[in-house]
């Protein structure tokens, strides 16, 4: 094929994916590595890429220590209870103690953060959230990354990490193709920070027609952070911990500001409060330690997000749907009404489009809520991602192997959705994690850990052939048929995606089984994923755009397989409302108060699963 | 389809192609104007709508669930630092204009070029601090939080 191979050599720090985590990494790397060569490889355009492409109306992780509001350990306790205990508290504490400096920087750069006129502090939406006018959040952080990086390669879909051939288990760069020119791009680097985001579109979405793009997490969140890391043999953690969101129906518009700031609340189709009636039954499933309504007024502990989902799902299943958000009271106040609409325009315009199309004026009617299909990600109210080292001064030995945010592959770092066990980082926390990873990556290089890296032409050519295989395959077999998309020798990326979504939905606890699965289902699912893997070798891509979709699908497939293995491994129902193991419907602290860790052998594709200890931050 | 392009307004400049995070705004080779090649991978994120210099792109809600006859338009002005929205309901009863600031400073000018700031000291490198910390952490005399200072321990076991 006529595509060129373009080699960018001698890179010190390669940032793969420049969303919030990646821009943070590129920005900070320049400070610790003044003379280092810093390069970004991004699949879209960094000005509008990733989950924050359309903006945000809130920064969901800010301590406010400067205003005497919260301490880092408070946030750790909050994330811990919200995730039913299963978090990496060293990583969380570390993120939380730095996140305020990130936010203060954003304000200096020009991000409009609202202020509370009475106190002068940032306007709080909730205990952890502050309100912003964030339409240009992404262009602003992109500007910061551009000022630091030597080179920004937009429109490069990274397909694989390159491995060092002089030392096992050490990273040596990455390879991918340009989504515009089709050229193959090789990045030889001493350290790589993967920040390629979480995964939408793995489970069948509720909307399967034209609206299939209106997923909650962005449709371009292709699970590449996981696909790349798993492919390189990095250990992953908590991949079973997918998230289900309670959102406005169909548009998936955010509800945070509605609950926290506008003080709207939910009721069932008959106008009744429904949550509390599910607590006794739920308490039997998870235990009093995790759900104790009697002590809420004393402890101010929040109800874990998954448990509130459980109440919503159960109420609908009991035939008393739909669930409504009661907006009619709050929206009588014109100021609050305006905030309600701004909230959508700032981060989910599609919800405003939908309400305009269906004449839903929340002042006059209470809109419907629903629970979404599951998503695999690690920065919102869930913690899927790589098993990473924590910081030296916080982490216990099992969590520390030299460099902060380094995966189990040497020189390979993660940030944002890529890092496991760190829920509730959100945009600000992801950017902060990028900064932490960048400092550690510079130190890794300065300590001489990246000496003597070797990447052979053989490795590059092998990967290159793999990259273009779907184009080649299509070219060979296309003319066997007259026209159309039905071909006995290949499937299209869309056909493959439909199959992946259907099997994840039906076997791994998607919406059509009401988030229910069990060992039998998961084993069938794993078998079907293997068939799909074989067929992915026979993907046919008609053009470069389809080649992009082909590689996104391969990354989604690797992510899904990890999710399936992890779900099978954890023999309990830890997060009712996210998913249920029908064969183990209870939370089981005796056997499963642990983190799950997996590794896929890159040579054989075999999975090994292990339990890792769960450490908690406690008072001396 | 989520985004569509008005034939008479588009001049094929390619700005939308350049910005779409989903890589779905492409130039049609026959009419030499842009169109959405994969509507079911569109997030209605409005990145292309905001980027189009001719206001040639509009959004029609997803056919699965949005009836025809609505409109949500946007204008983003970097010079003035604002974004202006207009929402019109299907039944014509609501027609709202909402304006928000997008920046408080001239573009990019207040983001430091880190190559030019003072290099970190060895002490700083050996500490847990990031760029501009501890100053940016609190803007007062407080330092970085540590376990010791907070009287905390990492303990294995079951704690709630
Ligand atoms: C609807 C919605 C509402 C949210 N609300 C809030 C909120 O109010 N407040 C808040 O703080 N946070 C919010 N978040 C969460 C926040 O957006 C994420 O936590 C954060 O963006 C995660 O950062 P990241 O860097 O891990 O991923 P992303 O920001 O998604 O970045 C991933 C990057 O990797 C690139 N990439 C992907 N694959 C490849 C590849 N193969 N090769 C090269 N590049 C690749 C992508 O193009 C992208 O630029 C919200 C998210 C969504 C979707
Ligand atoms: S609205 Fe967003 S996803 Fe849709 S075409 Fe425009 S830029 Fe692409
Ligand atoms: S940005 Fe506007 S004018 Fe330019 S190609 Fe796209 S739709 Fe046409």
TrEMBL record, chain A:
Q: Which residue numbers delimit the Fumarate reductase/succinate dehydrogenase flavoprotein-like C-terminal domain?
A: 499-613
Q: What is its EC number?
A: 1.8.99.2
Q: What is this protein called?
A: Adenylyl-sulfate reductase subunit alpha
Q: In which pathway does it act?
A: Carbohydrate metabolism; tricarboxylic acid cycle
Q: Where is the active site?
A: 301
Q: Which cofactor does it need?
A: FAD
Lineage, top-rank taxon, reads Bacteria
Q: Which GO terms describe its biological process?
A: anaerobic respiration
Q: Name one GO molecular function term.
A: flavin adenine dinucleotide binding
Quote any Pfam family the record assigns. Answer: Succ_DH_flav_C
Transmembrane region(s)? none
* Organism per entry: Caldichromatium japonicum
Does this entry carry the keyword Flavoprotein? yes
Q: Which keywords annotate this record?
A: Flavoprotein, Oxidoreductase
Q: NCBIfam families in the record, alphabetically?
A: aprA (TIGR02061)
Gene3D superfamilies with a match to the protein in the record: FAD/NAD(P)-binding domain, Succinate dehydrogenase/fumarate reductase flavoprotein, catalytic domain
Q: Kindly list the organism's lineage.
A: Bacteria, Pseudomonadati, Pseudomonadota, Gammaproteobacteria, Chromatiales
Q: Where is each FAD-dependent oxidoreductase 2 FAD-binding domain found? A: 12-241
Instruction: Report the GO terms under cellular component.
Output: plasma membrane
Automatic annotation (TrEMBL), chain B:
Top-rank taxon of the source lineage equals Bacteria
Q: Can the keyword Iron be found in this entry's annotation?
A: yes
**Which UniProt keywords are given for this protein, alphabetically ordered?**
4Fe-4S, Iron, Iron-sulfur, Metal-binding, Oxidoreductase
Q: Which SUPFAM superfamilies match?
A: 4Fe-4S ferredoxins
| Pfam families to which the protein is assigned, alphabetical | APS-reductase_C (PF12139), Fer4_7 (PF12838)
- The reply on keyword Oxidoreductase is yes
Domain 4Fe-4S ferredoxin-type residue range list: 1-30, 33-62
Protein name (record): Adenylyl-sulfate reductase subunit beta
The coding gene here is: aprB
């Amino acid at each position: 094929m006529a595509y060129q191979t373009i080699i960018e050599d001698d890179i010190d720090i390669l940032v793969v994916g420049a969303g919030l985590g990646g821009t943070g990494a590129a920005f900070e790397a320049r400070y610790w590595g003044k003379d280092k060569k810093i390069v970004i490889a991004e699949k879209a355009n960094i000005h509008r890429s990733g989950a924050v492409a359309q903006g945000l109306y809130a920064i969901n992780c800010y301590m406010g220590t400067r205003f005497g509001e919260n301490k880092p350990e408070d946030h750790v306790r909050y994330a811990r209870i919200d995730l039913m205990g299963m978090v990496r508290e060293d990583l969380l504490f570390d993120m939380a103690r730095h996140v305020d400096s990130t936010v203060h920087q954003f304000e200096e750069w020009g991000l409009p953060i609202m202020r509370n006129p009475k106190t002068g502090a940032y306007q709080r939406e909730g205990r952890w959230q502050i309100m912003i006018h964030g339409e240009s959040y992404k262009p602003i952080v992109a500007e910061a990354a551009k000022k630091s990086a030597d080179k920004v390669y937009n429109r490069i879909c990274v397909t694989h990490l390159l491995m060092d051939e002089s030392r096992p288990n050490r990273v040596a760069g990455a390879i991918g193709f340009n989504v515009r020119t089709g050229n193959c791009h090789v990045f030889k680097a001493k350290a790589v920070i993967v920040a390629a985001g979480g995964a939408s579109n793995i489970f069948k979405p509720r909307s399967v027609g034209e609206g299939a793009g209106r997923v909650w997490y962005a449709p371009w969140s292709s699970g590449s952070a996981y696909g790349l890391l798993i492919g390189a043999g990095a250990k992953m953690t908590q991949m079973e911990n997918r998230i289900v969101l309670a959102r406005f129906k169909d548009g998936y518009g955010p509800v945070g500001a509605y609950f926290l700031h506008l003080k709207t609340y939910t009721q069932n189709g008959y106008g009744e409060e429904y949550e509390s009636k599910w607590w006794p039954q739920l308490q039997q499933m998870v235990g009093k330690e995790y759900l104790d309504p009697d002590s809420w007024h004393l402890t101010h502990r929040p109800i874990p997000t998954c448990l509130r989902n459980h109440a919503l799902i159960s109420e609908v299943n009991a035939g008393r749907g739909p669930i409504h958000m009661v907006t009619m009271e709050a929206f009588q106040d014109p100021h609050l009404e305006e905030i309600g609409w701004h909230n959508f325009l700032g981060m989910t315009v599609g919800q405003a489009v939908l309400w305009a199309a269906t004449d839903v004026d929340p002042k006059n009617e209470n809109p419907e809520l629903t629970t979404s299909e599951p998503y695999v990600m690690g920065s919102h109210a869930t913690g899927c991602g790589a098993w990473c080292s924590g910081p030296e001064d916080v982490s216990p030995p099992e969590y520390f192997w030299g460099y902060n945010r380094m995966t189990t592959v040497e020189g390979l770092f993660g940030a944002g959705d890529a890092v496991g066990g760190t829920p509730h980082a959100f945009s600000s926390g992801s950017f902060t994690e990028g900064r932490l990873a960048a400092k550690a990556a510079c130190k890794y290089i300065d300590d001489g850990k990246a000496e003597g890296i070797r990447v052979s032409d053989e490795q590059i050519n092998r990967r290159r052939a793999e990259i273009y295989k779907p184009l080649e395959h299509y070219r060979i077999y296309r003319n066997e048929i007259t026209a159309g998309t039905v071909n006995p020798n290949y499937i299209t990326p869309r056909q493959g995606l439909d199959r992946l979504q259907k099997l994840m939905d039906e076997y791994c606890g998607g919406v059509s089984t009401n988030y229910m699965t069990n060992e039998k289902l998961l084993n069938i699912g794993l078998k079907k994923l293997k068939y799909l893997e074989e067929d992915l070798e026979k993907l046919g891509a008609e053009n470069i755009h389809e080649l992009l979709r082909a590689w996104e699908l391969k990354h989604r497939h690797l992510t899904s397989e990890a999710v399936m293995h992890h779900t099978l491994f954890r023999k309990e129902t830890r997060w009712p409302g996210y998913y249920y193991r029908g064969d183990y419907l209870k939370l089981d602290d005796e056997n499963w108060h642990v983190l799950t860790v997996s590794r896929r052998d890159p040579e054989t594709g075999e999975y090994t699963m292990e339990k890792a200890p769960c450490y908690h931050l406690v008072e001396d | 389809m989520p985004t569509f392009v008005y034939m008479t307004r588009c001049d094929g400049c390619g700005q939308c192609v350049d910005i779409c995070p989903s890589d779905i705004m492409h130039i049609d080779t026959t009419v030499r104007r842009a169109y959405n090649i994969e509507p079911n991978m569109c997030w209605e994120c409005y990145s292309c709508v905001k980027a189009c210099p001719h206001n040639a792109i509009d959004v029609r809600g997803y056919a699965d669930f949005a009836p025809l006859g609505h409109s949500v338009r946007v204008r983003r002005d970097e010079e003035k630092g604002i974004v202006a929205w207009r929402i019109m309901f299907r039944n014509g009863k609501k027609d709202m204009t909402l304006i928000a600031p997008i920046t408080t400073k001239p573009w990019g000018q207040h983001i430091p070029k880190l190559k030019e700031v003072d290099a970190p000291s060895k002490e700083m490198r050996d500490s847990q601090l990031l760029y501009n910390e501890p100053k940016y952490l609190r803007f007062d005399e407080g330092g970085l939080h540590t376990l010791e200072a907070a009287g905390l321990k990492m303990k294995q076991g079951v704690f709630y």
